Amino acid sequence: MIGLASFKAFLKRKDIEFSAKRYGIDALGAMAQGLFCSLLIGTIIKTLGTQFNVSFLTDIGTYAMAVAGPAMAIAIGRALKAPPLVLFSLAAVGWAANAEGGAGGPLAVLVIAIVAAECGKLVSKETKVDILVTPAVTILVGVALAKLIAPPIGVAASAVGSAVMWATEQQPFFMGILVSVIVGLALTLPISSAAICATLGLTGLAGGAAVAGCCAQMIGFAVISFRENRWGGLVSQGLGTSMLQMGNIVKNPRIWIAPTLASAITGPIATCVFHLEMNGAAINSGMGTCGLCGPIGVWTGWIEKGYAAGWFDWLGLAMIAVVLPAALSLLIDWPLRKLGWVKPGDMKLDI
């Protein structure tokens, strides 16, 4: 019992916490930010450079995209409160895990960076040659795991993503509803829908349904809470995140009905009517209108495929991303307020 108590005290001193929140929310959310600051923004810059024939921008975008693995791993290490020597060593771990993981690289980076960071934290500042021991342990553990388990993790993640995308192609109506609702809910919950889409490589029609669900949540909450939060709330939720409403959802879950039902409607419209596909970076599928990354991802996908988008494509994108989420959420929210299920102030934000 004394040994167990000492071990727990040691873990506490090292700030190592085995919890779903630390690994499933903090680390996953940080990974999405790392991916955003490398692959996603790099894709946008590269696309602009290609479209406007500015080689300087194309080069910048290419460089940013190339460091997605290190960016994700370092972001994860920061979320796990890794000390500097561990944090910096995770760059090599992230590069190896992402490269060995292939299409499922983000999931491999998540798993391996967590293990490597925690191992590095265990030995950090425990010896007089910390400058050698800590980086060595972090990199050896991380890169060894990358060689050993990243390929099967990548294959598994890719297989799940491919299965979802295949099912959506076969049953666009029902899968359009399912994917839209699930990814949309994940966007509002304190987990990362962007990271989920990235780890599964969710693109194609399924990616389009995911975009629909995320936009429904963000635009939906932005417009139905306008009377409480005005323009600040419209911008912070419509271009930021609907996660801001999570505290209010806990107090009154019924405020979640309108955006969620809206996503159940826009999902199959995206897949069956407009055939909206996400062929840009998979992370865009889970971003919604956050920085307009969802629509931008659809646009970059058109360009990458060499697809000449017509007026119907642009109409579909506008309808799925903004018009339908706003209109449907307001329409569904109205009877909820009449019934007293949603009351004035229920969606008030401290902004």
Descriptive account of the structure:
The chain has 351 residues and is mostly helical. The protein has 2 domains: 157 residues, no CATH class; 168 residues, no CATH class. The chain has 15 helices and no strands. The protein is globular and about 65 Å long. The N and C termini lie far apart (48 Å). The mean pLDDT is 92.
Shape call? globular
Largest sheet: none
List the domain count as a whole number. 2
Fraction in helix: over 70%
Total helical elements: 15
Mean of residue pLDDT?
A: 92
Give descriptors for this structure:
globular; 15 helices; single chain; mainly alpha; 2 domains; 351 residues
Give the helix/strand layout.
Elements: H1 2-13, H2 20-51, H3 55-66, H4 68-79, H5 84-101, H6 105-123, H7 130-170, H8 172-188, H9 193-200, H10 204-224, H11 226-240, H12 246-251, H13 257-273, H14 293-305, H15 311-338
Summed up:
By secondary structure, this protein is an all-alpha fold. It has helices at 2-13, 20-51, 55-66, 68-79, 84-101, 105-123, 130-170, 172-188, 193-200, 204-224, 226-240, 246-251, 257-273, 293-305, 311-338.
